[in-house]
Design goal:
The protein is an alpha/beta fold and 409 residues long. 38% of the residues lie in helices and 24% in strands.
Length: 409
């Protein structure tokens, strides 16, 4: 994880003495991934930290901040302070002015080179900034329109671009069908290893899996043709017209690092891609199927799952239709985070940290099913102010990091 920092010191202070006093702190910043740069970066795209070495730099820092605002490159004011030479009071004054001007920011009081907690906070913020920058360069393919039932989850390309910088590439289902028609049911290839490794193939036919491989290969061509890093598909149209499901295709794409989602759900695919950059981990998009608010339990289910997330899997028929292929994955237990983006401008989010307790096997639900325990208050909030019908599950506790990343938009 790398980041830029700009040292800011008053001309009244002796530079050599400052270098001796702060040399260990700068060394710690370098070891944490920091790269010292000059003030010219204030006009660049990347948001830099300001290392407030002394007091007396308040006006200069605010001038740089205003310059970025005028150029449309605002971003948060990130201030690294230390306990000497009036560094902290200067940082407080700077951030107070930023707040008065409607901006946001944060002070990191680095009390010395051994202050591991503050260095970790700086690194986390740097990771959030990097994830945001990478997300803003993405191309999202939307194959077909969002499914009719996603009345709150089909935000348009303009909203996505304005909010996240992501370019939406709308694609017709017919283009996917044309590609699939060239080899609708392949009979061999590396994709079949998932079929061979399956613990069982309950109610699933090999010819249905072959058609699922055809969907994957068709989507993969579109991903490469349009240089997509994420894709969401109106998958039920494939089931109704081609008799093929997209569950295997989306699973395999996700394992290959192409964030893949169902039903044209825009917030979920943006969230999946964002978390990929923020954590380096693949997430799972699923339906909340049942809750026990008193016990803090929520049951999630969906017919596709990245195989890299599960310990074993079974191939089954797709739940709603009884046709094609759905994947029943068995997750390992342990810490997880549930998240959801929402709102007309995707300006809201919900999240909860908890533990994945066990896998379920209810024949009346989508094939991959897990029960998660989270705080009861979080589930009550989800029921009171829902943001949509899908949640994203990711391994580990990452709510704090995501909250910071969202706040830095």
């Amino acid at each position: 994880m790398s980041f830029l920092y700009i040292p800011m010191a008053s001309s009244l202070h002796d530079r050599q003495q400052l270098s001796l006093l702060l040399g260990d702190i700068e060394k710690a910043l370098r070891e944490a991934g920091g790269r010292r740069t000059d003030g010219a970066v204030a006009d660049g795209e990347q948001v830099a930290f300001h290392f407030i070495q002394t007091g007396g730099v308040e006006r200069d820092v605010i001038r740089r901040y205003r310059s970025r605002i005028q150029q449309g490159r605002g971003g948060p004011m990130l201030l690294i302070a230390h306990p000497r030479h009036n560094s902290l009071p200067a940082a407080l004054e700077i951030l107070a002015q930023v707040h008065q001007e409607g901006g946001q920011g944060r002070i990191y009081l680095l009390r010395g080179p051994q202050d591991g907690s503050t260095l970790a906070d700086i690194k986390q913020t740097a990771g959030c900034l990097q994830a945001r920058e990478r997300l803003a360069s993405e191309r999202l393919g939307v194959v077909g329109e969002s499914s009719e039932w996603l009345v709150a989850s089909s935000q348009g390309a303009e909203v996505v671009a304005q909010r996240f910088g992501v370019k939406v590439i709308p694609l017709e289902m017919d283009e996917l069908r044309t590609q699939m028609a060239q080899d609708p049911a392949p009979q061999a290839g590396p994709e079949f290893e998932a079929w061979e490794r399956a613990a069982s193939t309950d109610g699933a036919a090999a010819e249905d899996f072959a058609r699922s491989v055809g969907v994957y290969r068709g989507l993969k061509v579109l991903v490469e043709r349009y240089r997509l890093s994420a894709v969401t598909v109106r998958c039920f149209d494939l089931l109704q017209q081609e008799g093929a499901t997209g569950c295997v295709a989306l699973s395999r794409l996700a394992d290959e690092g192409i964030s893949a989602g169902c039903e044209g759900d825009i917030p979920s695919i943006i969230l999946l891609r964002w978390l990929w950059h923020l954590t380096g981990r693949v997430g799972w998009m699923a339906n909340p199927s049942d809750m026990d608010l008193a016990k803090g339990l929520i049951l999630l289910a969906h017919c596709t799952v990245p195989l890299g997330l599960v310990e074993a899997h079974r191939m089954m028929s797709h739940f709603e239709s009884g046709q094609g292929i759905g994947i029943a994955g068995s997750f390992p237990t342990g810490p997880v985070t549930l998240l959801r983006l929402g709102g007309a401008e995707m300006e809201r989010w919900w999240g909860a940290e908890g533990s994945l307790l066990e896998n379920h096997h209810d024949e009346h639900l989508c094939r991959s099913q897990v029960q998660v325990r989270v705080p009861s208050a979080a589930l009550a909030e989800l029921m009171r102010e829902p943001l949509g019908n899908h949640l994203v599950l990711i391994k580990g506790h990452v709510k704090k990091a995501f909250a910071e990343a969202f706040g830095l938009l």
